[in-house]
Amino acid sequence: MSQSSFTVGSSFATSGKTSFLAGSKNSTFFCPLKSQEQQQSFRGVFEIQATSASPNLAPEIKLQTIQKFQRSPSDTGSAEVQVALLSSRITYMTEHLKAHPKDFASRRGLYKMVASRKSQLRFLKTVDFDSYAVLLKKLSLKPV
Predict the structure, then answer these.
(1) Hey, is 31 helix, strand or coil?
(2) Within a 10 A sphere around the Cβ of 84, how many other Cβ atoms?
(3) Cα-only R_g, the chain
């Protein structure tokens, strides 16, 4: 029998006993327990949960950041706003990596965000030095 032929929660006969397969959508494994409650506790103990950090900010935090750094009421994509949003995401990801030091995929994403912020800051420095200086002061960043 191949594992792909079984569905989650299906029953089948093995050696005269009825057994169940328990698992999530991505993983299926053999569970020799009959009741649903036993299956749920078995699944909770042996199922592996992925702990990747979401790089997206909560909508209310994002909205507050945009309102704080926007040039005009309709501005959502200026360099200042983008740098501020990236700084918020970098702060969140840094805290996540302190709790999960072996999360290398998130670490790579953090490095990419830092590089993107650096690039945006370089652009802002060449285009409008005054707003660049104000932004660095507001965000407590070192000059690029």
Answers:
(1) strand
(2) 22
(3) 25
Per-residue pLDDT averaged across 119-137, rounded? 96
With 0-12 CB in 10 A as exposed, 13-18 as middle and 19+ as buried, what is 97? middle
What is the H or E stretch that residue 122 is in? helix 104-127
AA identity, residue 144? V
CA distance 63 to 137: 21
Spatial distance between the Cα atoms of 92 and 54, rounded to a whole number of angstroms: 9
Q: Is the pTM of this model over 0.70?
A: no
Query: What tens digit of pLDDT does each residue of 46-82 get?
Result: 554 444 456 678 889 899 999 999 999 999 899 999 9
Q: CA–CA separation, 125 vs 116, rounded Å?
A: 14
pLDDT-derived band at 117, boundaries 50, 70, 90: very high
Residues in the chain: 144
